[in-house]
Amino acid sequence: MASSPCILLFTKAARPGRVKTRLIGDLSAEQTAKLHSAFVDDVVHSLRLGSFHLAVAWADDEATTSLPPSMEGLEVLPQHGDDLGQRLYNGLCEMSRQHDLVAALGSDHPEIDAATVEAAFRRLEAGADVVLGPVDDGGYFLIALRREALDPKLFQDIPWSTETVCRDTIEHCLSLGLRYELLPSGHDIDVAADLEALVQRLAGSTACGHTRSLLREWGYLP
Fold it and tell me: Domain tally for the chain?
């Protein structure tokens, strides 16, 4: 029997000045840390509801003693690698030892839900080798792969945090002969305009309870 799919949440401790740094100036360093923490709690809450294994790739320079309570009981492994590409590949490879289908997700996408992740895994089961969840800034919020599709070249020579990340990854898929599919576009929250758009989307919504509570406390939401 095939193993259950696995998604690996890549994140780190909510330390002021170390997270959501592109929002510092519009928010204080302490506020960005609280926002990061709210995002993580919302992502974990949503993904715990899915029909897949949830694990955490914790930044390798952070002690696991700083894990938030929302992660209690989850499998946690340290991130390893000189850049994001190496960390993604190493983490996915480690999880692929026990799971045929694996995925990686960052914690800058508080609106993610289990259904989106399950849709990515269904596409892999239907024959795709790689599934990407693109975002408006040119990156991707999720990458899901078959175990057989894992190749370090897929993550090499990618200019991370630029507008060509998703496009370059697609080009790597094509050069490796991998069949790729795209999910509907999502939203990362990196800069002030992203946060403003999130506030608009959450107005009147019941999603992202931790984030909504924090934004209401700050006066962003009624």
Answer: 1
Q: Is the pTM of this model over 0.90?
A: yes
Strands (E), the chain: 6-11, 53-58, 75-78, 101-106, 130-134, 140-146, 180-182
Residue 222 lies in a domain: no
Residue 178 maps to a domain: yes
Cα–Cα distance for residue pair 88/145, rounded to 1 Å: 12
Task: Report yes or no on 147 lying in a domain.
Answer: yes
CATH of the domain at 169: 3.90.550.10
Those residues with Cβ within 8 angstroms of residue 167's Cβ, 6 or more apart along the chain or in another chain: 138
> Kindly report the CA angle at 211 between 193 and 56, in degrees rounded to 5?
100
Domain range for residue 140? 6-216
pLDDT at 126: 98
Position 67 scores a pLDDT of 87
User: Based on the number of CB atoms within 10 Å of its own CB, is 217 exposed (0-12), middle (13-18) or buried (19 or more)?
Assistant: exposed
